[in-house]
Structure formats: C-alpha cells, structure tokens
Amino acid sequence: MTEYLSTATAPGKAILLGEHAVVYGKPAIAIPVSQLRVEVTIEKFRCPDNEIWIDSPVVRLYKNVKDLPFENPLRLAIDLTKDRCTTKTFSGMMIRINSALPIGGGMGSGAAVSCALIRALSTCLDGQALPAETVNALAFEVEKIHHGNPSGVDNTVITYEQPIYFKRNTPMKMVQVGTPIHLVIADTGINSATSTMVNGVRKRYEQDKERYQGIFDSIENLVDKAHQAIEIGDINTLAMTMNENHRLLQAMEVSSFSLDRLVKTAITAGALAAKLIGAGGGGNMIALCTTETTKPVSQALNAIGAVRVFSFSLADNKGGI
Predict the structure, then answer these.
(1) Contact 312/33 with Cβ under 8 angstroms?
(2) Which of 23, 75, 114, 214 has the fewest CB atoms in 10 Å of its CB?
(3) Secretion signal: which residues (predicted)?
C-alpha cells in the first residue's frame, strides 16, 4: 500500500505586460493562473541506501536523483531544499511530478515545478514547508539553469500566487484588482525555449541599443499605465496598453505567425485586447474580454486550431484570483 508523505501544488503564470523588458530592469505585471497547476507528491519508496527517485511523466523521466547531473533543475531544487532543512536523514522516497502546464509555453512550468517540489520536500523532511521568501529564493536559483539570466518574475508570482507589479532588485508590489478582469488563454502548440528567445533579444539589443532601449522605455510606460488601470478598474486603458505591448513585442521580433494569427482572431471575435505571453516564438497568447465576448473569442480560437483554450477571471478582491 502506498504511503504518502507530502503533497504540494503551484500555479502557472501569465505576464499581462512587460515580458523581455523586465530582464533589463523594467517593470512587469504578472498574474497567477491557478486553474493550471503542477502537483508534486512524495511517497515512501523501498530502495537501497534510502535514495530519492523522481517520476515525471510530462518530461518522460523516471530516475534516481543521484544519476542526474548536478546542474539538472530537479536535482538542484532537491539539493537546495535538503540543505535548508533541519532534517538530514530520511528513508527512501519517490517524488511524483504531474503538470497541467505546457512546457515551453510561457506559463512558468519550470518555476511552478520548482516551487511545488521545494514545498513538498521541505514538508516531508521538516513537517512544514519552508517560508515563502525562502521558497522564492531557492526557485530563483533553479530558474538560472532554465533561463540563464532570469528576471525573477516567474518564481515570485508563482510562489505568492497573487497578481504582482515586479521590478528587478526592488520590493514586489501586490496588485489590487479594481474590477473583474476576464481573460482567455490560447496555446499555439509550438514549444519555445525561453533561454533561446531571451538570448535572441540580448543579441539584437547589443547590436542596436538605442532602438531597443526606446522599446523598453515605452513598455515601462505601458506597464505603469496598466498598473493604475487595473487598480481603478479602467478596462479600456488596460486594453490599450496590452495591444500596444504586443506591437512592441512584434518590433522586438519575438512574436510569430502562429501567435499573431491567434491575436488577430481574438480581436476579430470581440476581444478588447490580445498579446503573446512569455518569451514568444510559440507558446501562448492572452486575450482581454468581457463577460459577453469570452465565449465567442474562445470558440473562434478553437475553430482556428489553437491546441488548448481556457478562460478565467481576476476577481476584484484586492489582488486575489
């Protein structure tokens, strides 16, 4: 009979505005996507030497942790957590990882796995999860393997599971939501490595710093306008900022035919705004809708071939979702 030791979950995320520019010290607004989650369950496992095994079907991994490279994100998350826990001895365990999040889809799958894994393992070892700030810090270290030069926005919004205004090296701000915000997310079905897209922007930035700095400055202005609009419930201004942000991401050469096609379809079907989310290249887009347009926008995106479409709302409960 299976003996369960601990379980933890973590949400996905979406960046409403500010992706890429956030790496260069500009602000971003990120929201948790609580409907899509990673779940980590730890079970007792009979094995020699009280070892830790991982079973993660989503990445087709079934392996002893000691056989993974030291720089493997899962091994690093486990090693960092063990170092922070007071309990240093344990029996054999199996860590099972299941995820509803698309890999390479711009929804923070790597950070979500790290956060859920850190919480589940620390609960298993010490009887309670590490504090949120510690979980966030450890997940950020793992993000460096995934992305090279991460901003920290993914691990932060996922750790706290609240809409945030994020700027590198400054205290984060929880975003208060003034009126319900209705959103639709659609997946192109195309995986895109965040590190590849970030490195591409870096290369083009180095080649034309003046142009790209101007784009980043414009995005910063949009993020600040959107922040105020969300808090006072000004949906029309939020829509304007999201649409303009997508145009700037196109100018940065991180959008794609598939993303632009979904964005155009959403707008034509009645969305107030639509833009890519995450690093671009593939992955997902997000559309800002009303209660009346959520269904037709979703239907149009499904009809044009989006791999997965779902809707959700940010509620007017002082930052809750």
Answers:
(1) yes
(2) 214
(3) none
* Amino acid at site 24: Y
Alpha-carbon span 186 to 65, nearest angstrom: 34
156/145 Cα distance (integer angstroms): 16
Eight-state DSSP code of residue 304: T
pLDDT bracket for residue 74 (50, 70, 90): very high
CATH numbers and ranges of domains, the chain? 4-166 (3.30.230.10), 176-314 (3.30.70.890)
Number of H helices and E strands in the chain, helices first, is 9, 11
Residues 6+ apart with CB under 8 A from 156: 30, 136, 140, 164, 166, 172
Over residues 275-288, the mean pLDDT reads 95
pLDDT tens digits, residue range 149-207?
788 899 999 999 999 999 998 998 999 999 999 999 999 999 888 889 999 999 999 99
Tokens 């700030």, residue?
Answer: 133
How far apart, in whole angstroms, are the C-alpha atoms of residue 203 and residue 236?
35
Question: What is the Cα–Cα distance from 278 to 246, expressed in whole angstroms?
Answer: 11
Tokens standing for residue 298? 């979703």
Q: Among positive and negative, which fits the CA dihedral 141, 145, 146, 148? A: positive
Contact between residue 164 and residue 136 where contact means Cβ atoms under 8 Å apart: no
Q: Which region holds residue 60: left if phi is over 0, alpha if psi is between -120 and 50, else beta?
A: left
Structure tokens at 233: 């419930």
Catalytic residues: 154
To 5 degrees, how large is the angle CA 65–CA 68–CA 102? Answer: 90
State the CB neighbour count (10 A cutoff) for residue 83.
Answer: 9
Q: What is the pTM of this model?
A: 0.91
Q: What's the mean pLDDT in 23-34?
A: 96
